[in-house]
Amino acid sequence: MLKKIRRKVKLVISKSFKKRSKPPKTPKAPTPSPSPSPSPPSPPPPLSPSPIMAQPQHHHHIPESSPFLFPKIESSVIPDPSPFFSPDLLTAPLPTNSFFQNFVLKHGDQPEYIHPYLIKSSSSSLSLSYPSQFLTSVFIYQIFNPDLTISASNKTDPDSERRHIVSSFSDLSVTLDLPSSNLRFFLVRGSPFLTCAVSGGTALSITTIHAILSFSPNNSRTKYTIKLNNGQTWLLYTSSAINLTHDISSITSDAYSGVIRIAILPDSNPRFESILDRFSSCYPISGKAELSKPFCLEYRWEKKGWGDLLMLAHPLHLRLLSADDEVAVLDDFKFNSIDGELVGVVGDSWKLKLDPVSITWNSIKGVKEEAFPEIVSSLCRDVEDLNSSNISTTSSYFYGKLIARAARLALIAEEVCFLDVIPVIRKFLKNTITPWLDGTFSGNGFLYEGKWGGLVTRQGSTDSGADFGFGVYNDHHFHLGYFLYAIAVLAKIDPAWGRKYRAQAYSLMADFMTLGRRSSSNYPRLRCFDLWKLHSWASGLTEFADGRNQESTSEAVNAYYSAALMGLAYGDTHLVATGSMLAAMEIKAAQTWWHVREGDKIYAEAEDFTRENRVVGVLWANKRDGGLWFAPPEWRECRLGIQVLPVLPITEVLFSDVRFARELVKWTLPALGREGVGEGWKGFLYAMEGIYDKEGALEKIRKLNGYDDGNSLTNLLWWIHSRGDEEEERFEGGKYCLFGHYCH
Q: What does the record give as the reaction this protein catalyses (predicted)?
């Protein structure tokens, strides 16, 4: 895997580090399975008339150059961000699914996993933990123990009520200030060092829950080695001499101003110490990720000090690091992590390159003509059942699935050359989508709240559990992804409607797809997508001890795929490029961390977990859970289904590993013996079976008597009949971008 990285460095560095030049190019109860849902359902509250939504909203007078905003509302359930963000940050939209979200919710005292450390801020102090893992066959989580806690010996501002303040943040970092202690922490993701700037001649206190076995300085008193009775060795570096004294569990200093860096010595291995020594003088204070070129992501860190920058890469980073990049990989310098081993990389910037992913309206390989009659017959029945007046749900999630299901029928009709049904589908989509865009939908609707900067629903603005937490920024990309898919298809088959509602469509997209960082933006930068982990988070403004989480990777892929389709419908090449890039990264991350292959090494320490699971249920920043929000681990058909739905052309790329599809189906099939398994879930299982056994899957699909509310018999038949005759080998989405053969 790492053979592509041509510049490597031996473990022990004994001379000045130089970058090499580029090489020459040569339920337990027998009840039916619930319908798929991304989080625990809550009944919507009784709706009362709202003056905001009482009359249709007419927005045609707004110039196209002005971004459209849905009607504004003051949410009664949104938490107040002002206690945790510096005042200058409060003038711009704020992140709602970030890697540091726990720091700005409730008391701000739940830990966050900022690789390779778990970090917790409380009581004007900051604790770091190099976590061990708790392993079972059902879940894995990292254990937080405050190995070291840093604070001021005496508060410089005893009257300060703020525990900490976020003074700046970026894609790859957050800066945390402790105003009562003159301490500023540069928390940069992937840094092997915790970096703290101390000002004002502050005396420091460093405590541990362990016993200090030995404590030794170097001659200049700029490095201290701390050995604890739990087997850990920590290294403390300072930018200038510091006087430290210690007792059994605490270390104190004289008044000090300067920079302190603290790092674990992995496995207390003395061979790694020379590496940490060499790179201890160069420290990052922030980092940005740029989508600079198609299917290329670039990291750039702002650094201080002198020398080269040492960071850590997770397994997906290592797979994507460009062979042409000016970085050096320290193959044997490794830190443990729930996400797989973190490996040292030296360089001020990285380039991550992905294979291109095909964004297509229709199946990638096409449907053979002999299959058209069966699909058309089913299509006519499914279209005949479309009736907007029969929709009873007001949930933004389930409503979105219904309109996306209908939109699939239109594209399948195009693919099998049966256009007679398009007018009926177009009418249904116009009748169901338009009220959500013009404010006339009586049961719910989209509104804009300005505290954090983003969309909420009418129901969610007064009930944090309504719409699966959409009102507190949970699952935004899931819900809006379905709407964007339906909008993209309707704009394709009815360009006049598309032009009329383009501004509203772009406002839905921008809620989770904004790239800009300007304070004048209406939405934060990439609300759900994590440009360091390379996948989305879904959990919004809810505090969790294990950080952010995401259940359905396939619905996340659908969100960015649908945004790209909307770009195709509107001729927006930038949106197509951005949506396809994010979809490609989400797919890679799903295949890396959610799809668990037999003998996989990502969860190397968790042999029981790897043996007993083929998909992760809910992936947390600090945990891997076999269970789902709505089902126990034993309901394997639900676990498979929530990682497959909705079935789309891009599903072929997400499940491009035919061997894994076979493993996944084999693992899931026994669950169908449980009483009460829903027919809808069976449909997704048979869709996966169709990847390697078309005839067997087709026979089972024809016998189904029900389908998921976002799926249909027509869609399942289309999927099976568009499977090719691939050998059982892994192939990537870029396989279908044949122009790559002519670009050498």
A: Hydrolysis of (1->3)-beta-D-glucosidic linkages in (1->3)-beta-D-glucans
